[in-house]
Amino acid sequence: MGVLHCISSCVVLPCKPRKFSITTSSLIQANPAPFRSLSFSTNLSKNAFCKGSFTVKPIERQTRRSVVCEASPKKKADSAAKRARQAEKRRIYNKARKSEVKTRMKKVLEALDVLRKKADAQTEEILPIEKLIAEAYSVIDKAVKVGTLHRNTGARRKSRLARRKKAVEIHHGWYTPPAVTA
């Protein structure tokens, strides 16, 4: 702080100093040993500045210019705009297909839960559920065919329905799994 006070009392600077470049006079350049470490600390005294041994020149920093993003997006290229339209159409189409698959599966699973909880269920009561399962299989297969669902996902969902149906049949005693012989 004392050094800055010395600078402001010895030299009039046009701006607030941020960084200084110190140039020595010819006398000091001949004998640079005592002034190797030029830092604004105890190495430089008020006398050195005021006697004119040093000249102080302020170095102006360039102001940084930042790039400001526009609030509104730039216009897309024609091909990108077309791709965006196509993607949106596909998204809506796939969303409807997936929703239909979920709805069909939910109907089958709810019907199987009701049948499982029923104490005096008959074998014929599974026939309407088998029709629901066939419709669900059809919807799943169509979704796989057009690419909405991956084929492994379709197979897993169909397997889930079949396993749940078999669990209900085993629960009521309509189906007995074969004994595993080792």
From TrEMBL:
Assigned keywords, A-Z: Chloroplast, Coiled coil, Plastid, Ribonucleoprotein, Ribosomal protein, RNA-binding, rRNA-binding, Transit peptide
GO CC annotation terms, alphabetical: chloroplast; ribonucleoprotein complex; ribosome
GO BP, one annotated term: translation
GO molecular function: rRNA binding; structural constituent of ribosome
Protein name: Small ribosomal subunit protein bS20c
InterPro entries: Ribosomal_bS20, Ribosomal_bS20_sf
Highest rank taxon of the organism: Eukaryota
Organism: Nelumbo nucifera
Sequence similarity: Belongs to the bacterial ribosomal protein bS20 family.
Classification via Pfam families: Ribosomal_S20p (PF01649)
Primary location group: plastid
Location in the cell: Plastid, Chloroplast
Coiled-coil features, chain-numbered ranges: 98-125
